[in-house]
Design brief:
Layout: H1 3-17, H2 32-35, H3 41-54, E1 60-61, H4 73-85, H5 87-91, H6 100-114, E2 123-126, H7 128-140, E3 146-151, H8 155-163, E4 167-172, H9 183-189, E5 196-200, H10 212-225, E6 228-232, H11 247-250, E7 257-262, E8 275-278, H12 281-294, H13 300-311, H14 314-340, E9 354-355, H15 360-365, H16 370-381, E10 383-384, E11 386-387, E12 399-402, H17 408-421
Parallel strand pairs: 1-10, 3-4, 3-5, 5-6, 6-7
Antiparallel strand pairs: 2-8, 7-8, 9-12, 11-12
Helix pairs in contact: 3-16, 4-13, 6-13, 7-8, 7-12, 14-17
Length: about 425
């Protein structure tokens, strides 16, 4: 993608993000539903990174929200051996709700790590965590309903809300509060104007772990006012200090709580597209019905692989090996940012995969917005980072920097190039 095309695209992106869900399609040959969705600048930056790499330029790519280490070798070898023994079993259709062996293993895994009891019958296996979000939103909410999002939030949340024709209310989560929202905002909006709240902990893009006061407020308000909680726990095992917050333990029942999980991070198969949802039996039954329409069944080979991971102890072994590596990478990236960009404001994340520094001083000094800043950064320095505004208005002038996908040396080198770009070196 050349500079002219990228500039045109990013200008269009900024314009579309400002328009409400009633946007008229520019190209009437396709649906307004689809043409109302902007292409995420992440796609542009990834394309630019690939183009530079093909030209022989070394690219420091901090954009990917995926593990930086491959799946466990022993688990892979076991899976391949089982696949060879009985290929038909591993590729045939299974029930839409998912492999019974895997749902039982997920139930046991939840009991092992969280001390929570979820029956296999209340678990649906999905095509990645994103599929679980789609099924949850379309099952629990109708067009015109209001969804409460924390701002900033994972960019896909905003697009799913638009696609489903939802109204969006927000509670801001800011640097000053450790990226935790104000409990008073939750009390004001959840269950009054908003029929549901969708949130992640640990978070993307901020990496914050929800604090106990906010978590308890969300549960208390949702159950009192009969609102839904959709809880995205894709990063629940990537915790370096402290603990994951299990809403299941705070809630009086699962009646208003739907939890969306993923195997992309904890067993490192993001391209395998496998996740799961659990919640009240009536909601899971309706999601299973919808899954049968939208995708029939989640990838069966990956379901078997996840089952072998959980039942064979491979997941526990993998986490023991990778968490210390990711912690070291986090420390290296954080210290490099503090050292080389003294006017950035950044929190040291206790979990997840991302630094989310406030770069307002440097971005203003360049006379750019954060989208233009990231495009110039990759063009001039070969450093790819995501603009914070794609995660919501409160993310503007921040950068999302993935710290798990490179070793410490390359993490530091890329941040030093960022410092050169803004004139700090």
């Amino acid at each position: 993608m050349d500079s002219f095309t990228a500039t045109w695209f990013l200008s269009s992106y900024r314009h579309i993000r400002m328009v409400d869900t009633r946007i008229e399609a520019v190209d009437m040959s396709v649906s307004r539903r689809v043409s109302s969705l902007p292409v995420n600048p992440q796609r542009v930056l990834i394309a630019k990174a690939e183009e530079l790499s093909r030209r022989g330029v070394k690219v420091y790519n901090y954009t990917a929200g995926q593990p930086g280490l491959p799946p466990d070798t022993e688990a892979l070898n076991y899976f391949i051996e089982m696949l060879r023994r009985d290929p038909f079993k591993h590729f045939r259709y299974v029930s839409t709700q998912g492999l019974p062996e895997l749902r039982t293993a997920i139930s046991e895994d939840l009991r092992k790590y969280g001390g929570v009891d979820v029956e296999p019958s209340n678990i649906l296996v999905t095509t990645g965590g994103a599929d679980g979000l789609v099924l949850s939103i379309y099952t629990l909410l109708d067009e015109g309903d209001t969804l409460l999002l924390l701002d900033p939030s994972y960019s896909v949340y905003w697009d799913l809300a638009r696609l489903a024709g939802l109204r969006v209310e927000t509670c801001r989560q800011l640097y000053e509060n450790g990226f935790n929202p104000d409990p008073e905002c939750i009390k004001d909006k959840l269950g009054s104007s908003a029929k549901a709240i969708l949130l992640a902990s640990p978070d993307n893009p901020t990496s914050r772990v929800i604090n106990s006061e906010v978590a308890k407020t969300i549960v208390d308000v949702a159950y009192e006012r009969k609102a839904w909680i959709i809880y995205d726990v894709a990063y629940k095992h990537l915790v370096y200090e402290g603990e994951h917050v299990w809403f299941e333990k705070l809630a009086p029942s699962m009646d208003r709580l739907v939890v969306v999980g993923s195997f992309s991070k904890d067993i490192a198969i993001p391209g395998g597209r496998l996740g799961y949802v659990y919640g009240p039996s009536n909601a899971i039954a309706e999601m299973t019905k919808l899954k049968g329409v939208l995708g029939i069944v989640a990838p069966v080979p990956m379901q078997w692989m996840a089952y072998y991971y959980l039942s064979g102890g491979f997941k526990e072994k993998y986490l023991r090996e990778v968490i210390p590596v990711y912690r070291r990478r986090r420390d290296a990236a954080y210290e490099a940012l503090k050292k080389n960009l003294p006017r950035a404001r950044v929190l040291k994340p206790a979990a997840s995969m991302y630094l989310f520094p406030d770069m307002a001083h440097y971005i203003r000094e360049k006379g750019l917005d954060d989208v233009g800043f990231t495009m110039k950064l990759i063009e001039e320095k070969g450093v790819a980072m995501l603009p914070g505004s794609i995660f919501g208005e409160s993310g503007s002038n921040h950068l999302r920097i993935t710290f798990v996908t490179m070793d410490e040396k390359n993490l530091v080198e890329g941040i030093e190039l960022l410092a050169e770009f803004v004139g700090e070196k």
